[in-house]
Write a structure and sequence with these properties.
The structure holds 2 protein chains of 2 kinds. Chain A is an all-alpha fold. Chain A has helices at about 5-10, 20-30, 30-40, 50-60, 75-95, 100-105, 105-130, 145-160, 170-195, 200-225, 230-260. Chain B has 10 helices and no strands. In chain B, helix 2 packs across helix 3 (about 55-70), helix 8 crosses helix 10 and helix 9 (about 155-160) packs across helix 10 (about 165-195). The longest helix of chain B has about 30 residues, at about 165-195. Chain B is elongated and about 65 Å long. The model of chain B is unreliable at about 1-10 and about 105-125 (pLDDT under 50). The chains are: A mainly alpha, B mainly alpha. At the A-B interface, helix 1, helix 3 and helix 4 of A face helix 1, helix 2, helix 3, helix 4 and helix 7 of B.
Amino acid sequence: MNCRHIDKMLAEGSLASPFSTEVEDHMRGCARCRALVTALATSALADQPSPAMLRHIESRIVADYHPVRPIGPRLHFFSVLIAIFVCLAGFGVYLRGAFAIRVMSPLQAAVILGALAVCTGLLASSLTQQMVPGRRHWIPPRLLPLGIMFALAVVIAALFDFRQEQHFLERDWACLRNGIPLGAIAAVLFWLVLRRGAILSPAMTGAATGLLAGLVGTSALEIHCPNLHAGHILVSHLGVAVLGTTVGFFIGMAAACEINPPCP
Amino acid sequence: MECRLEENVGARQTLVDVDRLMERYQQADPEAPAALIGSLSPGLLRFFRSQVVSREQADDLLQETWMRIHRVRHTYRPGEPVMPWIYAIARRVRIDGYRKTRRITAHEVAMETLPEPPVEEQRDMLPSFDTLVGALPDAQREVLTMLKVGGLSLQEVACATSSSVGAVKQKAHRAYERLRQLLQAGAEEDRREGAQ
């Protein structure tokens, strides 16, 4: 038994009196642990909410009190988000054609589409978790959008060549013009789904939603656009996702300020 | 050694009742709001108070927390533990409250020594829990308060703070180690003053 074991027991809430012999022995010889355990044991309630305030809270709640239907299972929302994603990306490809698939090697097609599918799954999963407060996140939601954009940029840079090309800006703009409307429609549909939940951090959720919407445009462009230059793909295909993340983040920030005025 | 740490064990046993109360609250049971507010508010108030806010601010944050809980009560899934759900909302209300009053940076500064204890605490030479955790950095204080006051498990704290169990354990360990140092420093200072 050492101080670390005491820490572990304190954190797990398993250090209850009467203490075991081992704990007693350790604390007899360790003044630091003895002082800590004694100090933490004085956590008796000092401040209690006043009955008047509790009644006030209750009266405000009862003023708008009606039965609510609990939110649906996580898988349901996940499926809806994925269905919207697939339908819109498919619609984009249907309108413009799948020319990129014909010119990409099987490896390039498999890796880039696989990476997009994984990123979409991770984002949709994170968003469905964010709808319910207190859910466990395997990847911190604030890091996920940045991680996904970085990972996709690395995959694109590794798979495709950087070459000089003519009419760089015109081609980029043409792809952005095709991808942005898809992303915008997707963002609206995703928001209609996500508003069923409790969005505690609008900026963070906004960024993730914007990225997922942007990835609809990116995915459609990856299947449609036969320009395989890495620079073009990074700027005009992944650019749709980056733009979506940025816009989503700022809309979320604005929503947070709306909920909690005045905002710093 | 007589100790009241079993309070937390007792608190955990009542959590099952809170889960059921929450389900009744969703069904608009007329008894549920009073019972739920009465059982959870003391812990929530201590959570806000331990984040070194004034009593008035803590009362405001408590009210705001209940309003948000009420607005999003449909997002609680019956059968799941209610405490991470409640504390995730309370945590967000606290963050928003800090931003609102533009005082967040002042609270992020870790204090180097224990704050001056009030006169009644000097009598038995033992700082209160709030005074004690007031000396910790924000993240450690939050974890320790959820564990000790809210009676949440490590997994529940991880859920409420959107972090991993490992990160929570590490914060708790660092908090305990820091408290040991502060208590030891305080005891040595008392001894020196006694000798003089």
